[in-house]
Automatic annotation (TrEMBL):
NCBIfam families: ackA (TIGR00016). Belongs to the acetokinase family. The lineage of its organism: Bacteria, Bacillati, Bacillota, Bacilli, Bacillales. ATP binds at residues 14, 208-212, 283-285, 331-335. Keywords: ATP-binding, Cytoplasm, Kinase, Magnesium, Metal-binding, Nucleotide-binding, Transferase. This is Acetate kinase.
Amino acid sequence: MKVLVINAGSSSLKYQLYNMMDESVLASGRVERIGMDSSIVTHEPADKPEVKNVSEILEHTTAVRRVLDLLTDAKHGVISSINEIHAVGHRVVHGGETFKQSALVTNDVKVEIRKLFDLAPLHNPAHMMGILAVEENMPDIPQVVVFDTAFHQTMPQQSYLYAIPMVLYRRHKVRRYGFHGTSHAYVSDQAAKFLNKPLESLSMVSCHIGNGASCTAIKDGKSFDTSMGMTPLEGLMMGTRSGDLDPAVVPYVMNKEDLSVSEVNSMLNKHSGLQAISGLSSDMREITDAMNEGDKNAKLAFDMYTYRIRKYVGAYAAAMNGLDTIIFTAGVGENSVVLRKAVCEGLTFLGVELDEERNSERSKVTRRISTDSSRITVLVVPTNEELLIARDTYAIIRESSDYN
Ligand SMILES: Nc1ncnc2c1ncn2[C@@H]1O[C@H](COP(=O)(O)OP(=O)(O)O)[C@@H](O)[C@H]1O
Ligand SMILES: CC(=O)OP(=O)(O)O
Ligand SMILES: [Mg+2]
């Protein structure tokens, strides 16, 4: 059985085609700059050279058509017909309180996802475009949606409620939802397997540090608290997002700078974080390079960024009344030796002892970077959100009567 995984953004569409018999990736790729003057398509078949081409792709239906053409192309393709694709799985960022697990796409499910547009205006409308584009190109293929928020639906009320009038929760569902749940679920499960211990027996903090970044406290195998909130803006400092700040800053700055709601939203989501403090870049590689060359603003950005992660790890150790394992994952967490060192150096009081040599090793597999005698085990676990989406899709399709 072959499953196509799609992560549709407003102007991009990333894809991976899996053979679920052995969970191998047959091809992956992305369409960027959809709707702009020149779209870039990058297609990477597993056993053939990468192809890149530039053309005009005005909307998502055409983007999906192009992906299907590439997957079945005589020269660059990996399957002979689209009938070989049994199901499509989509990443959907916001599932609100409606979706506690992945779901088969039906008309009712689409209605519910539309109701959540307001809570994730940057993400959910784009995901819906991806779902509709697949429907148009492959009308008979079942689709499954996998939500970033689903894993966090186990949080207790004390973690997910904001201390504001309850009527706002009842009327508008204002609460913490949390994101990157697919990643936090995947890496915590991988960590338990690596340590050969039952997942339920470990108190862990999973640090997903990528472009977007979040920490999750995982207790009894479930999300207990997480740093992102109603939207993916709260919590850690990120590439271009501010993370936590005093909410009073928002009306104050709007007033002083004469900013509209959408302008202040854009400032906090797109023009803050590493980018704002360094004045250089949102990319951690550029920040560390500049810091090594003596750039003071880059150093400040790095220090603020790592300090925030440390604060969350400490807070969650207290929240869970204990901590066994810290996990680093995603683009920065998996690759930045200096970031992991900076975070762990301030956690010796908890019993974290980093092994510098292990931390410096470059590897793509799950590994321990703490010393053997460290009271807290620190792991680097490569995330794989797409694989988990493919697995959920496969499981749901097999369960659904349509497939049998
Ligand atoms: N070797 C590296 N050192 C430090 N940061 C890195 C390295 N490689 C990638 N990154 C960071 O990873 C980020 C992307 O992470 P990723 O998890 O792919 O993000 P997203 O899925 O949110 O786009 C980039 O912005 C870059 O800063
Ligand atoms: C929810 C979120 O922040 O996603 P990403 O890290 O892909 O931006
Ligand atoms: Mg990501």
